[in-house]
């Protein structure tokens, strides 16, 4: 009985891991397929919202990463 429960749990864990990997790959492709003009438009909106946040305006320091090609452009913040 315990072996059966462990086997079922392991199978479910593998299924979850596989589902998560498939979802990650699907999302990467969706993001990759966003046309550059749309990405630039959305990047501008995100940066404008960030600059308007009270927390951002009151911050003495912030942390930010350089963006990758398929990500929101963080250069205006830097």
Automatic annotation (TrEMBL):
Its EC number is 6.3.3.2. InterPro entries: FTHF_cligase (IPR002698), FTHF_cligase-like_sf (IPR024185), NagB/RpiA_transferase-like (IPR037171). GO terms for molecular function: 5-formyltetrahydrofolate cyclo-ligase activity; ATP binding. It catalyses: (6S)-5-formyl-5,6,7,8-tetrahydrofolate + ATP = (6R)-5,10-methenyltetrahydrofolate + ADP + phosphate. Gene3D superfamilies: NagB/RpiA/CoA transferase-like. GO terms for cellular component: mitochondrion. Signal peptide: none annotated. Pfam families: 5-FTHF_cyc-lig. It is an enzyme of class 6 (ligase). GO terms for biological process: folic acid-containing compound biosynthetic process; tetrahydrofolate interconversion. Belongs to the 5-formyltetrahydrofolate cyclo-ligase family. This is 5-formyltetrahydrofolate cyclo-ligase. It comes from Acanthoscelides obtectus (Bean weevil).
């Amino acid at each position: 009985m315990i072996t059966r429960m462990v086997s079922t749990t392991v199978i479910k864990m593998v299924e979850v891991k596989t589902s998560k990997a498939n979802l990650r790959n699907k999302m990467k492709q969706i993001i990759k397929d966003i046309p550059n003009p749309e990405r630039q438009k959305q990047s501008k909106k995100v940066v404008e919202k960030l600059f308007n946040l009270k927390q951002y305006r009151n911050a003495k320091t912030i942390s930010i990463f350089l963006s990758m090609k398929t990500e929101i452009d963080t250069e205006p913040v830097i």
